[in-house]
Amino acid sequence: MARRKQIYEGKAKVLFEGPEPGTLVQYFKDDATAFNNKKKGTITGKGVLNNRISEYLMLRLGEVGIPTHFVRRLNMREQLVREVEIIPLEVVIRNVAAGSLSQRFGIPEGTPLPRSIVEYYYKSDELNDPMVSEEHITAFGWATVQDLDDLMALSLRINDFLTGLFLGVGIRLVDFKLEFGRLYSGDDMQIVLADEISPDNCRLWDFKSGEKMDKDRFRRDMGGVEEAYQEVARRLGILPEGGPRDFKGPETVQ
Ligand SMILES: Nc1ncnc2c1ncn2[C@@H]1O[C@H](COP(=O)(O)OP(=O)(O)O)[C@@H](O)[C@H]1O
Ligand SMILES: [Mg+2]
């Protein structure tokens, strides 16, 4: 196997130099962290499932005209993506009160919000990903007013599409986090969806029972974490009968 240059190791993924210029390989790990790295663990099979789930959702979003970094899956844990200049923001879209929004404003978890709320957090582990306003973002040069316009419009379109997609498989999309990046071609710049969309960064509740099917099961020591991720994949129609072990293909290629 050819040695590849590792570019970055994050909490959930490793980035390698891709086979062509301007591409990267995202390797999905089973490592799980919560509360800004204070809680650490592993969720067996998570990397395999998130690789598939993120691929599936990015492809569906691509079909409705959302530009994404996704190129193709390489194997069970790896996908090829276009290298982008990551905008250092976590864009959080909320439909139902949960997590930090419930805590900060004293709104019980599960309360539907009168309209979707988009929040921005500055991506910085050292600073604990502080919440920031558009004023901070433009003043500190993390994104321009035009970038923010694009981020907001893309985020709301993604939210509408994913809300419907998950509803179709009996899942309520409570909230989720996105990352975007700048893709340059010549003089042109386009903002594209990057990183991943998976139960690691979405709150997904079973529509009927309200049962959590996401990383909150890990954060809150609820058990059944692996099963919850598998069930999301199964409902999306991307998990083979025998579970993630039945996925065909080598663990790594190239
Ligand atoms: N297409 C891309 N180009 C460059 N960087 C990317 C791309 N997609 C995601 N990233 C970055 O790669 C990292 C993915 O690894 P992850 O484990 O999620 O890291 P982190 O611990 O920083 O969240 C993130 O920092 C993310 O911003
Ligand atoms: Mg991350």
Automatic annotation (TrEMBL):
<dbReference type="GO" id="GO:0005829">
    <property type="term" value="C:cytosol"/>
</dbReference>
<dbReference type="InterPro" id="IPR033934">
    <property type="entry name" value="SAICAR_synt_PurC"/>
</dbReference>
<keyword id="KW-0658">Purine biosynthesis</keyword>
<dbReference type="InterPro" id="IPR028923">
    <property type="entry name" value="SAICAR_synt/ADE2_N"/>
</dbReference>
<dbReference type="InterPro" id="IPR018236">
    <property type="entry name" value="SAICAR_synthetase_CS"/>
</dbReference>
<comment type="similarity">
    <text>Belongs to the SAICAR synthetase family.</text>
</comment>
<dbReference type="Pfam" id="PF01259">
    <property type="entry name" value="SAICAR_synt"/>
</dbReference>
<keyword id="KW-0067">ATP-binding</keyword>
<keyword id="KW-0547">Nucleotide-binding</keyword>
<dbReference type="GO" id="GO:0009236">
    <property type="term" value="P:cobalamin biosynthetic process"/>
</dbReference>
<dbReference type="GO" id="GO:0005524">
    <property type="term" value="F:ATP binding"/>
</dbReference>
<keyword id="KW-0436">Ligase</keyword>
<dbReference type="GO" id="GO:0006189">
    <property type="term" value="P:'de novo' IMP biosynthetic process"/>
</dbReference>
<comment type="pathway">
    <text>Purine metabolism; IMP biosynthesis via de novo pathway; 5-amino-1-(5-phospho-D-ribosyl)imidazole-4-carboxamide from 5-amino-1-(5-phospho-D-ribosyl)imidazole-4-carboxylate: step 1/2.</text>
</comment>
<protein>
    <recommendedName>
        <fullName>Phosphoribosylaminoimidazole-succinocarboxamide synthase</fullName>
        <ecNumber>6.3.2.6</ecNumber>
    </recommendedName>
</protein>
<feature type="domain" description="SAICAR synthetase/ADE2 N-terminal">
    <location>
        <begin position="6"/>
        <end position="235"/>
    </location>
</feature>
<dbReference type="InterPro" id="IPR001636">
    <property type="entry name" value="SAICAR_synth"/>
</dbReference>
<dbReference type="InterPro" id="IPR050089">
    <property type="entry name" value="SAICAR_synthetase"/>
</dbReference>
<dbReference type="GO" id="GO:0004639">
    <property type="term" value="F:phosphoribosylaminoimidazolesuccinocarboxamide synthase activity"/>
</dbReference>
